[in-house]
Amino acid sequence: MGDILAHRLQAVLLTLVGTALALPNDRRYNVGDEVPFYVNKVGPLNNPSETYEYYDLPFCSPGQVIHKKESIREVLNGDCLTNTLYELKFAVNKSHVFLCRKNLSSDEVATFRGAVANDFYFQNYYDDLPFWGFIGKVEDRNWTFDGKGPNKYLLFSHVRFDVLYNDNQVLEAHAFSDPNHTVDITDDIEVDVEFSYSVFWKEAPTKLKSRMVRYSKASLLPLLQKVHWFSFINLVVITFLLTGFLVVVLMQCLKNDLRKFSGGDEEEDKEVGWKYLHGDVFRCPPNMPLFCAIIGTGTQLLALICFLFTLSFLGVLYPYNHGALSTSLVVIYTLTSAIAGFSSGSFYSKFAETGWERSASWCRSYFRGSF
């Protein structure tokens, strides 16, 4: 029975690790096949952590809104993937396809205007490829000839999708809001809007395994990498300097005390300096289970970070795969939980022969509770 359970556990762990370390999506399509398209969320450009569901804005929605079953990565990232009226069939070009016609009420116009004023963008997924686009734009009247009047708020009513493919696989997806197709939503009045879209396909020589590399070549990334390396080196240097200063101060204090004791000037029974600590060195700290749980949790966190860095440096972990990094984090956290229990229990057993089980069990919830 024990062998069967061990084999089943091993199979589950291998499956989880295989899922976490999988290469990019390798789905293949024929001309005219349906490709998964999901709308996700909207939010202001200057605050990526503030997001809302896509249909919180009065966009064209299907009769029945169906939420995609969320993966671990999507749950951790706060995604909300839902179905849409867009139909982008594989390798099929379309031009100015009618999506829907909506009569926006004054409240819906105000909702769209607030989103445009705050530079809202949308994020969608096509074949697990994320892409972004803007909802509208603001025309500043100060740049006009008369220079009078309030700003003009325009809602984009047409979106152009450009998709790159290689043979029978999707490589890239882009969305461009057409500035020539806009609707004025400056005033709180009812507005009729006709939404439409176009899609154009282009064959590219890029291989599937490198289809997400473009996300790592953003214009700001080289600068960010330099800043991160400089910060890392700066942190290491400061740590060594502070450690060195602390060692010098402690050594000076110990030398002074030892010099006094060796001189015979002090009374033999008088305790000064570091000798005050001799009665506390082997004293059991208060709330021992919690203290050991913190030690075990810290050990687990250190091991988890080392595992992730090692997998990334070896190239085993594909970080640009949709969900790979988050799934790997959860899997490695599960595997390293044994390290937390062992570290906590072994440290507790140095002070007491019984009760280490409670300390080890506290690690189970303390890691999650700290966040």
Automatic annotation (TrEMBL):
Locations listed in the record: Endosome membrane; Golgi apparatus membrane
N-terminal signal peptide: 1-22
GO CC annotation, single: endosome membrane
InterPro entries in alphabetical order: EMP70
Keywords associated with the record: Endosome, Golgi apparatus, Membrane, Signal, Transmembrane, Transmembrane helix
Highest taxon in the source lineage: Eukaryota
A GO biological process held by the record: protein localization to membrane
Transmembrane listed as a keyword: yes
Chief localisation class: membrane
Topological relation to the membrane, as annotated: Multi-pass membrane protein
Stored Pfam families: EMP70 (PF02990)
Residue ranges crossing the lipid bilayer per the database entry: 229-251, 290-318, 330-348
UniProt xrefs under PANTHER family: TRANSMEMBRANE 9 SUPERFAMILY MEMBER 5, TRANSMEMBRANE 9 SUPERFAMILY PROTEIN
Family stated for the protein in its record: Belongs to the nonaspanin (TM9SF) (TC 9.A.2) family.
Protein name: Transmembrane 9 superfamily member
Organism of origin: Cuscuta campestris
